[in-house]
Amino acid sequence: MTDLPDRQFGFRTRALHAGARPEPETGARAVPIFQTSSYVFEDPESAAAYFNLQEYGNTYSRIMNPTVAAFEERIANLEGGVGGVAFASGLAAQSATFFTLLSPGDHVVASRALYGGSITQLKHLFKKLSVELTFVDPDDPDEWDSATTEQTRLFFGETIGNPGGNVMDIERIAAVAHRHSIPLVMDNTFATPYLCRPIEWGADIVVHSATKFLGGHGTSIGGVVIDSGDFDWSNGKFAVIAEPSDAYHGLAFHETFGMYGFLMKLRSETLRDLGGCMSPFNAFLFLQGIETLPLRMDRHVSNALGIATWLDARSDVVSVSHPALHYRENAALLEKYLPNGAGAVFCFELEGGRSAGQNFIRKVQLFSHLANVGDAKSLIIHPASTTHRQLNNDELQAAGIAPGTIRLSIGIEDIDDLQWDLEQAFA
Amino acid sequence: MPKTIKYQDPATIQRVLRTSRSVAVVGLSANTLRASHFVGYYAQRHGYRIIPVNPREEEVLGQPCFNSLSDVGDAVDVVNVFRDPSAVPALAREAVAIGAKALWLQFGVISDEGAAIAADAGLDVVMDRCLKIEHARYMGRMHWLGLNTEVVTARRRIRR
Prior knowledge:
The structure holds 2 protein chains of 2 kinds. Helices cover 40% and strands 13% of the residues of chain A. By secondary structure, chain A is of the alpha/beta class. Chain A is globular. Chain A has helices spanning 11-17, 44-51, 66-79, 90-101, 116-128, 141-147, 170-179, 192-195, 239-242, 253-257, 261-274, 280-291, 293-312, 323-326, 331-337, 353-363, 393-398, 415-426, and strands spanning 83-87, 107-111, 132-136, 152-158, 184-187, 205-209, 223-227, 317-320, 345-350, 368-369, 379-381, 405-409. By secondary structure, chain B is of the alpha/beta class. Chain B has a single domain, classed as 3-Layer(aba) Sandwich (Rossmann fold), CATH 3.40.50. Chain B has 5 helices and 7 strands; from the N terminus they run H-E-H-E-E-E-E-H-E-H-E-H. Chain B is globular, with a radius of gyration of 15 Å. The chains are: A alpha/beta, B alpha/beta. At the A-B interface, helix 1, helix 3, strand 1, helix 10 and helix 11 of A face helix 1, helix 2 and helix 5 of B.
């Protein structure tokens, strides 16, 4: 067998190929859907080696599956991480990350401009886990710093806030986290690794809802956690990773697996115990989606910028939250973190409040009224009565949402048709 | 991501893994939970002859332990080191003296001096890399656990 070439392939090439070597047994070129719950062991010694993590081997599809693994490796490769673990949803990926890193009495500092589901998850899940939480302004690194205590164990934010459009200064906030010897966890769902790779700016862990742009076709629910492999879990603050684990016959994950310590713990303990695994069929659909991620994202971001600019010029629109407009005064931030475009999800506020928002949604013909983003098809929703319904008025305001706010997820249709649809809804 | 430094050449790594048969593991622990034991167990399972070098053990992985590399006697292809970096220059000189073909320093075992001693004598040198992970990356099943092998290829792997 010849050696593999030492070449750094480009993003588009890796979006197609990473994680998807031809299947050796059959030669199948597409990644096969390994629709199996379990795997026959060669012999008792092999079975023991797999369960002891002494050998890379498949045991049970709650913990690993070859189709899911191809998806995990592809995203890890595109994000520049050392590996990934997939979950049944983006929120499952997040909760598993928190569950792995946090213990009762710990504290978390998080952006207050998160996806409503994440705000709810943090507020209520952490209460049940006896973890303290402080929300801070994502745009102000000093607030992150001053909110940090001896008990703080991680920072959590979104590359592009949902739906307010805040763009985090990842490098500065990662530096604050590292000064306190804690990791920065970034939700990179809205940017995707095509637009921004947080690990390159110092983030330690990246989480995704793959349901959105990665899958791209609104077919499947899934999530994934990527680790940079750079964080020192043996710095004294993360006994949960560094000390011998009761849940795995005394294994010290960081010492034994080094840069894979967090991921091995996440998979062989948290995924094993919480059980929120991704189905192989969903992984296959995500892999199909990611093949065209660069092509789709180019169209998503150009359509979104075109629609946002057009809305911004209208006298019956109060404001538009697209990052390119929101950060008009700070173009350097976008140029730094999002040089290929600032995503395709943004809000605009109608005059006339809640009823104006609801009337607008009744009139659209082409935009689909549903609670998702990142589909190839354009989507519309009224956050105050749906995705952010559990938030009180103060929280709504903090997340940049007014009663008349409409959230759009701009698809890859002809932009003239999208403009036509919105125009007739204004009438 | 691992930082690319000297002595991490993919072609060298693959050549060492493919052409070597015997691996002297310096600092191989009998404790099955230690990283050295994971690596030794894995390499033995994949057909390498493991020669434990550890004065504090009698036998590891069913093989008799030697006090030092010089005591081994048999041919050693790879000297695989799990020791403090300060021990590496002396080990490198021993590796050269016994005619080893490669010096492989595990994660964190970083010694430019030791690496240079071996390289100057014509040995292949790999540093701050794990033998198990590199084997699993190029020849094994690391991709089954969602780890980033960084391998991108449309060629079908031939099973042997």
